Amino acid sequence: MKIFDLTGKTAIITGGNGGIGLGIARGLAEAGANLIISGRKKDKNERAVDELRSMGCHCVATVCDVVDQSQIDACVELALNEFGQIDILVNNAGIAIGGPPEELSEEAWDEVVDTNLKSVLRFSQAVHPHMKSAGGGKIINLGSMYALFGSPGSIAYAASKGGVIQLTKSLAISWARHKIQVNAILPGWISTDMTAPVMDMEPFYDLIIARTPEGRFGEPDELAGAGVFLASAASNFVTGISLPVDGGYSIG
């Protein structure tokens, strides 16, 4: 359908070299978008680019740590130099550090919050003037089920993802006048490198499966549809939402 067509559009995807980020990247590539894959590991970036190019996507990668403003600026500059525009930003990069709340260090808290929340604001600020001058754009932020329910063992992660939801709403209100739609996707339990250890954590894993009506973990490519929707003209009157893609986990 033409309304979902992203031909000629350019997207930056942070953490786009694996997991959910790469799943969304595949969807945007299939819809015709040009891609900038941002990730901290060069070899992983190159593997992702090779795969996306094999799909016919015009794609380049850059090593970028989202806590470093100079690297954010360099990523934006690369996108402009390569494609001349930035139409879509997917703020996907994230980390988690677990442990009891009473043992969480300030250093660990700052590392998680800076990566998962502050970087969303910084990257959004960096692309804003280019989207504004172009007459609009799409920003997609990745939240989490922990933004809704909290986590006794990953409080910095949960707090940062809760912040992502409120930041999404606030940017949506602020930038609607510039025709920039800002939305969030809330993944449920998805099979990624980050969640792989949970598979061996009984009874925790069993409790997740029991709560999920679909009865399984999702796959990264199952985030692609939501990504394409929120990146395309199909969502031009959708802003400030947090869309669960969770197999029904959040119903209960």
Any chance you could write out the topology, listing elements then pairs?
Layout: E1 10-14, H1 19-30, E2 34-39, H2 42-54, E3 59-63, H3 69-83, E4 88-91, H4 106-134, E5 137-142, H5 146-149, H6 155-175, E6 180-187, H7 204-211, H8 224-231, E7 242-245
Parallel strand pairs: 1-2, 1-4, 2-3, 4-5, 5-6, 6-7
Helix pairs in contact: 1-8, 3-4, 4-6
Architecture overview:
This protein is globular. Helix content is 44%, strand content 15%. The chain is an alpha/beta fold and 252 residues long. Strands 3-2-1-4-5-6-7 form a 7-stranded parallel sheet, with helices on both faces. The model has no long low-confidence stretch (mean pLDDT 97). The protein starts with 9 loop residues before the first strand and ends in a 7-residue tail after the last strand. The chain is built from 8 helices and 7 strands.
User: Which H/E pattern describes the elements?
Assistant: EHEHEHEHEHHEHHE
Span of the ends, CA to CA: 34 Å
- Low-confidence runs (pLDDT<50, min 5 residues)? none
Treating each run of at least 4 consecutive H or I residues as one helix, how many helices?
Answer: 8
Beta-strand content: 15-25%
Short description:
The chain has 252 residues and is of the alpha/beta class. 44% of the residues lie in helices and 15% in strands. The protein has a single domain, classed as NAD(P)-binding Rossmann-like Domain (Rossmann fold), CATH 3.40.50.720.
